[in-house]
């Protein structure tokens, strides 16, 4: 739609300031949402994206500044108030009740009622219709805790859609979605915009965001630094405005010899509990000290199951895992961490962090065993570890004592990485660790892993982004249907990696 009304501004933030104690999260931001268009908000971790969206959806109030809806100033007293006026938000951190059904989560707080009470049949019908629209086979009565992370994200999206909002804010809606699920979401977004719904989209997957967006806005340190229409920009433009001209996408560390094999997986099998099929099918892999191995694959290729089995989270149905020549059979997760094998899990909300604890407590959580074992409390040493990790992993926080919930999404992810590195491991497994991490921080994490590798750490890094393999790996393993379908060195063309995974090779724009 190109007529003037279609392009008009529906919701506007004027000179918004938000402070949290000494932190100035937003420093006077102007931001406009256009009717029937997608506006993408880009910015580094902690730039203030989520904070701005929380203000525009009634989650929190600005310290100063004005919100203008349809040309008139408004004050949103709550999310319910904002929702009643047509603004709905999909949060970056999933906010579903795990022990409730998909249906009950979608209608929580706005149950459909009939003469006798809640009309569960109607709620079920509407939930099923939403799932069909999102092309996801999820039964409305399934408990949310039984869904994989990506499916939970779909439910979160369905809940926002069910409100029939005029303005829909999506804060990192695709971080756990597969490529085909993203396709479906984009179809839904196009359908919504064609009906006049306005979308705000936030993602650290820059190529993906470029595909869907009409307008781009870049936030940096709480201030808007750039603003343009889609036709005027490309990937380079975003990166330049996000992190400046000094961006370097990195390369695998070199100039040293690998050591002995530290991790040896032989004939590993993992069974699907429900169907009895093999999610990991007789897979063998050796990793040497100092080596960085990337495991590339599509969602469902068995990468997470492999890493979880190696880390002791799920049982092997066959095969063996050895660390420095000794079998890990029967050892608990904690015992494996003691031996020097750690996992940075896929789902940081559920597995990685304790939300009621501080940044510092979370950082030392996995290494606490060694403090206690020595029957000493060593506050000085503990404080040192916390400070080292905050510095090394570039965690943007007021300090070790800050609540974990006060950190931006990407910075929480960095805490999980820091926590595992703090144990001084011999082998680190990382499952899609870069989700939600900005492009600059990603480069920092790569640099840090490269440095640790050159000191002898063995790194196994699972990713569904080809570019990440090329930026970090000495060796690239492609997984498909639970098996290794190909193995490459670091100079392989992108297309070969994708083809080996069973993926259609997309002709996307890349940063050159
Ligand atoms: N509840 C809070 N208490 C204290 N500080 C907060 C709180 N919420 C956000 N902040 C701070 O405000 C700043 C902006 O955070 P915000 O979550 O908006 O970043 P973001 O751009 O969404 O980052 P990301 O890409 O990592 O999600 C950060 O410095 C963050 O630590
Ligand atoms: Mg955020």
Automatic annotation (TrEMBL):
Signal peptide position in this chain? Answer: none
Q: What is this protein called?
A: Sugar ABC transporter ATP-binding protein
Please name the taxonomic classification of the source: Bacteria, Pseudomonadati, Pseudomonadota, Alphaproteobacteria, Acetobacterales
Occurrences of domain ABC transporter (ranges): 11-246, 256-506
Against InterPro entries, the record matches this protein to:
AAA+_ATPase (IPR003593), ABC_carbohydrate_import_ATPase (IPR050107), ABC_transporter-like_ATP-bd (IPR003439), ABC_transporter-like_CS (IPR017871), P-loop_NTPase (IPR027417)
The domain of life is: Bacteria
Any one GO molecular-function label of the UniProt entry: ATP binding
Is Membrane set as a keyword in this record? yes
Which keywords does UniProt give here?
Answer: ATP-binding, Cell membrane, Membrane, Nucleotide-binding, Repeat, Sugar transport, Translocase, Transport
One Pfam short name: ABC_tran
List the source organism. Endosaccharibacter trunci
